[in-house]
Amino acid sequence: MAEILDKAWKVQREIEDGVKHIGKGRYGRVLKMARKPTGEEYVKTNQITALGIILIGGLGFLIYWTFTYAAPMIGGFFR
User: Do 44 and 77 fall into the same domain?
Assistant: First the structure.
C-alpha cells in the first residue's frame, strides 16, 4: 500500500513541477495579458471572419466560372 502512495506522490510532484513553469516562459507575459473577449469583440471577429470566408469563396467561384465557361468562349474568338 505504501508503495502505491509513494508512486502517486511522485506523479503528483512531477505534474506540479511541470505546471509551475507555465507562466514564466516565453509566452508567460502573453498568457497573463490574455482575457475573455467582450460580446462586441466576439461579434466583430465573427463578422470579419464571415466576410473573409465569403470573399475567398467568391474568388474561388469566379476562378471556377472563368475556367469552365469564359475560357471556351474566349478561345472561340481566336480560332
Answer: yes
Which set of grid coordinates corresponds to residue 59? 474568388
Q: How far apart are CA 12 and CA 16, in angstroms?
A: 6
Residues 71, 55 share a domain: yes
Same domain, 12 and 50: no
Residue 63 φ/ψ, nearest 5 degrees: -65, -45
* Residues 41 and 74 reside in one and the same domain: yes
State the DSSP string of 65-78.
HIIIIIHHHHHHHT
pLDDT at site 40? 96
Give the range of the structural domain holding residue 7, as residue numbers without chain letter. 1-34
Q: What is the pLDDT of residue 23?
A: 67
pLDDT per residue over 14-64, tens digit each?
888 877 777 677 777 777 788 899 999 999 999 999 999 999 999 999 999
